[in-house]
Design brief:
The chain has 229 residues and is an alpha/beta fold. It is built from 9 helices and 8 strands. Bound molecules: pyridoxal-5'-phosphate.
Length: 229
């Protein structure tokens, strides 16, 4: 086991607690998801031994493989945080408990159709694009309500809230203030949709100040990602 992994995790958790306190929030309202993409399954094991139970991946194939390699760690919760192709919906649904990146009705439909009898409802978030670049993923803000309504019509999906990535060219506090407003719009349609998935290594403090409930933190905890072929 890598001592530095333990100390990085502890120091991030301390910063999360401090940021929550500064925002007048309880750290228990905040779920810290460790993003393990590009790292081997052994890192997931090390994290599990340190008490981590929420992990995130952004590619379906890597998620499927890693989940198989850690199948004995039954209490892990896997979050899918990458751009999802509709033809991967079945594989994603078979492995992830939550999909943060639903950005179009067709993807919601594919995830809905991928449900197998007896499946738990799948937690899904509306991913919102905070940029003008459609290639970044996410629904544009003017499409939030229509997509949320569509998801509410899918009986095997449970609308949990919103997800966003802060743009590179905007201060994260300003970007996350917008996300908080979008989250409010979704809660008008579904009061139980209280998750705000926002905040990464470089901006989780600002995300907490803006009300984020789910942080997606990778490299600050895992160390730099190995290059991916
Ligand atoms: C990789 C990734 C993260 C984590 O990024 P870090 O900067 O390493 O914390 C968070 N969210 C998404 C969508 C990602 O793809």
């Amino acid at each position: 086991m890598d001592d530095t992994l333990a100390s990085r995790l502890a120091s991030i958790d301390e910063r999360i607690t401090d940021a929550a306190r500064a925002a007048g929030r309880g750290a228990s309202d905040i779920t810290r998801i460790v993003v393990t993409k590009f790292h081997p399954a052994s890192l997931v094991r090390d994290l599990h031994a340190l008490g981590v139970r929420e992990v995130g991946e952004n590619r379906q194939q890597e998620l499927t493989t890693k989940r198989e390699q850690t199948a004995d760690l039954a209490d892990l919760t896997w979050h899918f945080i990458g751009q999802a192709q509709t033809n991967k919906a079945r594989a994603i649904r078979a492995t992830a408990a939550a999909v943060h990146t639903v950005d179009r009705a067709r993807l919601a439909d594919a995830l809905q159709r991928a449900a197998v009898d007896g499946d738990d409802p799948l937690d899904v978030l509306v991913q919102i694009n905070l940029t003008d670049d459609p290639g970044r993923g996410g629904v544009s803000p003017d499409g939030i309500e229509a997509l949320a309504q569509h998801i509410l019509g899918c009986d095997t999906l449970r609308l949990r809230g919103v997800m966003a990535v802060a743009p590179l060219d905007e201060h994260p506090a300003a970007a996350f203030a917008r996300v908080a407003q979008y989250a409010q719009r979704v809660r008008t349609l579904e009061p139980a949709a209280r998750w705000i998935s926002a905040g990464m290594t470089g901006d989780f403090v600002e995300a907490i100040a803006a009300g984020a409930t789910h942080l997606r933190i990778g490299s600050a905890i895992t160390g730099p990602r190995p290059l991916h072929g």
